[in-house]
């Protein structure tokens, strides 16, 4: 009897989401123009100068890794895609494997992996710019990844910095083009060896302007050969969106079984709906409510859940992606957690990567 109330509530949220998208896109375009003018050495009016003073973040005295504006780098998180966007051709589809969302950071010839909360989980050499040896001491790279412990592989979603080239303020379609070209230039990133201890793989992208490619992607099952890694869901990036720290309506998320209801596009029949699934908006609201309960539960306990594949076992550091338990070992090293900081002397690092995973 309350189904209509859910639908009305969902409609209001959707309208708010569309309005927030529009305003955020306008703000990001305005910021990009200001940055371009600044780089060209154009003098700003007093009004622009005052606006920049008020909006510019304050530089912190800590050694936390910061972007050009002095803001600490952090992950971009998605919102539920609650309704088919008005201009679907303005979006890019990205498959997301199951695993742990993280930032991979290189600097001073080393590579480190950080969780959503900014805790360091491991470090190792890599062939990413700045990630291995003395030649990379002046380079830095920051990638938005999903780490699959089962394959010991980082699946790359996005790039914040690549080889000292900051990409945060670039449009998503440009960031993706840049990433693909860099991975094509260095195929060795996919291979593990003494210089590249972890494999890095670029996730495919599908432009909604190409209807055939989109249909093929949704009909493929399993999405990856032998279902390794397993597909968790789909991310939807607005082509013109900058990289936003925190949750943004310009990146959407759907589980595969939701796609027909939200987008009106059929998916492979093997993407089965859960038994408790009746309406996508109801499911999203219930999912969020259960997740909020889990966060509260975990905030009062010092242990992490390591069971398998259900909403009741989502790890607190991986709320966007359901974890099948493969990453449980990463949470046995809570005493080794550190915030995202750079420049630490090597002698302060008391544990090696293998010990972190024991």
Instruction: Provide the CATH superfamily.
Output: DNA ligase/mRNA capping enzyme
State the shape.
Answer: globular
The number of domains is 1
Name the CATH architecture: 2-Layer Sandwich
Mean pLDDT: 78
Number of strands: 12
Beta-strand share of residues: 15-25%
Function: Functions as an U snRNP-specific nuclear import adapter. Involved in the trimethylguanosine (m3G)-cap-dependent nuclear import of U snRNPs. Binds specifically to the terminal m3G-cap U snRNAs.
Keywords: Cytoplasm, Nucleus, RNA-binding, Transport
Biased composition (Basic and acidic residues): 45-54
Family: Belongs to the snurportin family.
Walk me through this protein's architecture.
This protein has 358 residues and is of the alpha+beta class. The protein has one domain: D-amino Acid Aminotransferase, Chain A, domain 1, CATH 3.30.470.30. It is built from seven helices and twelve strands. The longest helix has 37 residues, at 3-39. The protein starts with a helix and ends with a helix.
Give a quick rundown of the structure.
By secondary structure, the chain is α+β, with helices and mostly antiparallel strands.
Describe the protein's topology.
Elements (H helix, E strand, L loop, with lengths): L2 H37 L6 H10 L20 E5 L10 E7 L2 E8 L2 E5 L5 E5 L15 E9 L4 E10 L2 E2 L5 H14 L13 E4 L3 E2 L3 H9 L11 E8 L7 E9 L4 H5 L16 H20 L53 H4 L2
Parallel strand pairs: 1-12, 7-9
Antiparallel strand pairs: 2-10, 2-11, 3-4, 3-6, 4-5, 6-7, 7-8, 11-12
